[in-house]
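Practice record 12: protein with cytidine-5'-triphosphate.
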Amino acid sequence: MGLLSGKKILLGISGGIAAYKTPFLVRQIVQHGAEVKVVMTPSAKDFVTPLTLATLSKNPVLSTFTATDLDNPVWNDHVELALWADLMLIAPATSNTLSSMVQGRCNNLLLAVYLSSKCPVFVAPAMDLDMYSHPSNKRNLEALVSYGTNVLPVGEGFLASGLEGKGRMMEPEEIVSKIVDFFNPSLPLKGKKVLITAGPTYEAIDPVRFIGNHASGKMGFALAEVAAQHGAEVILISGPTHEKINHPSILLEKVISAEEMFTSVKKHYPQVAIAIAAAAVADFKPKNSAKQKIKKQQGLESIPMIPTVDILAYMGEHKSGQFLLGFALETENELENAKNKLTQKNLDGIVLNSLRDPESGFTVSTNKITYIDANSTVKEFPLQSKLDCAKTIFGQILKP
Ligand code: CTP
């Protein structure tokens, strides 16, 4: 379930160069689970095509009062469209559109829909810096605020004119996060960063071969999804996997070896509130990785191995307020081994997986977990999908 599941968002696009970013905007809103319909001003079509937007939104895109491609023109019902929406977003909102909105002018479909709307309206202004700072524009924005419109701030930086300053449209991901905040004002991990390691690591024997394991990354990716659904900004550091991220609040850093995963973890760990080590990190790596492919004729009787760095133990040693959760994958003396890891690695909780259970483990989509908290309280959970396991785990982490 996305953070905007069940929501209907009407995107109004007016004719400014920032319109080229609206396909990304549509895609992200859709990724959050909302239904999107798009209405454009005629000039917006010079900057982005209706076909692109219709494909991404999976809905027809409207820009005229009537559908003229039929023998009997059909009225594009602006009132119905306006009443359909739970939220109307106008992005980019040009100076012209903003001023028409203030004055109640109705010379295109977008404006007609706006004037007919009863839902909350957000505008993301976009224009050149002098236009933006012009008193007329400032007065228009103030007027819109007084009508109850949510005016999003503009960004600062390079503008299409070549000038530099205030006037850039807010970036699509920021706009989406404003909308998400609007519909979900009290998400438990809002404003917090969560780091998750996932997947296997591959330790090179030579440029062709490696030592790895069967981890699929499914559990780590499910945890990332649930953390993002709780409002967190997620940094997902994953070894090689076929899993895909589906949430715009997840930043995926792909790594291959334990050493690369460690480098990435060290960079992000100080900034996060919660860190979860779900990766099946290789415990050993070849002492020397051959620069060239080892030829068959050379023979290979043994591969000298050395330990990899214990990433979770490092995080336990360098804790500065983070909640630290580890996983324990055991085949015997499960509880005892997991409790030992909890204390030895200075964790706040540990999730025990047993490979004895046929429906738990690496490649399957289900898991049977046992959660052990810092007081060594043990809670066993039934077999669940990995996504439900992730929800259970966050339920434990966020337990009051
Ligand atoms: N872990 C890690 N870095 C390593 C090894 C493990 O961060 N080099 C983390 C795993 O992500 C997991 C936890 O440590 O959260 C325990 O991993 P597990 O493989 O169960 O145990 P190990 O500590 O490797 O010990 P052993 O293999 O002896 O059971």
